[in-house]
Structure formats: C-alpha cells, structure tokens
C-alpha cells in the first residue's frame, strides 16, 4: 500500500490532544468536537486518502477548511478513533460494514455523505477467466462478516455458486446451496487478499486493496461488481452529534463537488466510481 504512514498509539494520543483538549471538560455523550481546530480525518490510503489529499491541496483553503488526513491500513481503528475523539471523522467504509461494526462494538458512527464505490472483484494469477477455475480450486475471501458476504454474492451473481435465498449481508460459505466447481474458501484479512494470490487459485479483493496492490479492477478483475443499485458506496462518517460541525459540512460539500468527481474519473479510470 505504497509508503503508508503507520498510526501508532503515540500518534493517536497526540491527535486526541490536538483535536479536543476541550473535550476533557465536555459532555462525552454529546459527541461534540472543538470546531476551532483542524478537521482530522482517518482514511484508508487508496483511494480515500488520495481523494482527501486532492481536496486538501486544491479546494480546502479556498473553502476555509483546515484539513488533516491520517492514513490507516485496517478497517477497525478509523471507527474506534472516531468514536473516542482521536479523529474527527473517517472515510473508508460502506453502510453494511458500519451497521455491523456499530452493532458489534457499541459505537455511534453515522454516515454524512456518500462519495464513491470501489467495485469488489475476483482476481487470479493462474486463470484468465472465472469459468476456467478448476474443480476444487481455492478462493480467498475477506474474513470480516460484511465483506465475506459481499464476496460470496459476487461469486453467486456470476454463476460460480448459489446462495440460500435471503441471506443478504450475513452470508457465509455455510449458506452455499450449489457449488458446481466444489470451490474451497480461505478466509483472510481483507488487506491480505491481494497477497494471497500467489497461494490460492483466485481471491476476491476490495477495490482499495486491489488498487494499492497495483491491480486495475476495471481491467484485471475476472468478474467485477456492478455499480447499479449497489449498497456499498463509501462515505464520510462521524460520531453521532457531529454531523453539523461546520468543518464536516464543508468537507462533505467539497467531496461531492464537480472537481472531485472529475479527479476520481480521471485518476481511477473506472476502478473507483463517483456516487454523486
């Protein structure tokens, strides 16, 4: 994932101090932030931080927004840091993932504005077409509940498996009712799916991790999610109560501006799709 900044505990603590010294004497349940400082946003390196860096470099100053971008390479810390005030917002996730996270962890993160879709894709170093997968082939899938279900639905939509009716975002390999190729599934951390390609026959990879690994979803994926009626758009999110923070509303407006739409279309060439 390029030379990504690793956010250590010390940096998190420093960010918390920078963001909200006033929070020490405030009502924690309100989720209010100190609106006088910079808006610190936690983001996955690609494409989220790249999009935020574009906003910071090209648009934020004119809009009167002091924006700071913190990169994370996992799907947990951005939400926990947003919940505890170490950062003011995050940009990395979709609604099914957030719903699952809030339910399991007791957090209070809410979406502000949807910005883009990263189509999930099936990739392989061993075959050129999905139907060329051999009987008994091993397919790596993300091991978090939402992305695993999403991966299985992608395979089902392309005829590789059949899932039990109505399983939705909770599908697991146990919900497969037909598996004509007798595919085997290896559950790995989402960030590790690109690296697993040398060890398995194919892998279902999230768009941001595919791009970070040098894959081009629009070109390299054996099969790719359709953007039509897709519930997995990625959005700017905050702790409940901070939706109207003036810095957040400014950033939401900038992230859905014509300039950002053009940036996404020009840079990612269909591998990331604007959702506005």
TrEMBL record:
Q: What is its main location?
A: membrane
Where it sits in the cell: the answer is:
Membrane
The superkingdom of the source organism is Bacteria
UniProt keyword Membrane, yes or no: yes
* Membrane-protein topology: Lipid-anchor
Q: Which UniProt keywords apply?
A: Lipoprotein, Membrane, Palmitate, Signal
Q: Does the keyword Lipoprotein apply?
A: yes
Residues spanning the signal sequence = 1-23
Kindly name one Pfam family recorded for this protein.
Answer: Lipoprotein_9
Would you identify the family this protein belongs to, as annotated? Answer: Belongs to the nlpA lipoprotein family.
PANTHER family linked to this entry: D-METHIONINE-BINDING LIPOPROTEIN METQ (PTHR30429), METHIONINE-BINDING LIPOPROTEIN METQ (PTHR30429:SF0)
Stated name of the protein:
Lipoprotein
Query: Which species expresses this protein natively?
Result: Streptomyces eurythermus
């Amino acid at each position: 994932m390029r030379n990504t900044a690793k956010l250590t505990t010390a940096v998190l603590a420093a960010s918390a101090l920078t963001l909200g010294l006033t929070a020490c004497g405030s009502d924690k349940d309100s989720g209010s932030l100190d609106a006088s400082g910079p808006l610190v946003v936690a983001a996955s390196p690609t494409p989220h931080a790249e999009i935020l860096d574009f906003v910071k470099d090209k648009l934020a100053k004119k809009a009167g927004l002091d924006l700071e971008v913190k990169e994370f390479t996992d799907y947990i810390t951005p939400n926990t840091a947003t919940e505890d005030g170490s950062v003011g917002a995050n940009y990395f996730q979709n609604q099914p993932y957030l719903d699952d996270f809030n339910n399991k962890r007791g957090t209070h993160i809410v979406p502000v504005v949807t910005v883009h879709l990263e189509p999930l894709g099936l990739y392989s170093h061993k075959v050129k077409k999905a139907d060329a997968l051999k009987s008994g082939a091993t397919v790596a899938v993300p091991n978090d509940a939402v992305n695993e279900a999403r991966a299985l639905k992608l395979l089902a939509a392309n005829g590789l498996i059949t899932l039990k009716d109505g399983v939705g975002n909770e599908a697991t390999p146990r919900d497969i009712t037909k598996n004509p190729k007798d595919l085997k599934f290896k559950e790995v951390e989402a960030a590790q799916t690109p690296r697993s390609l040398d060890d398995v026959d194919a892998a279902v990879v999230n768009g941001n991790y595919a791009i970070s690994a040098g894959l081009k979803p629009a070109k390299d994926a054996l099969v790719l999610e359709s953007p039509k009626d897709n519930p997995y758009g990625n959005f700017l999110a905050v702790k409940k109560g901070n939706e109207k923070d003036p810095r957040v509303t400014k950033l939401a407006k900038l992230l859905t501006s014509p300039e950002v739409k053009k940036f996404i279309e020009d840079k990612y060439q269909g591998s990331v799709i604007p959702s506005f």
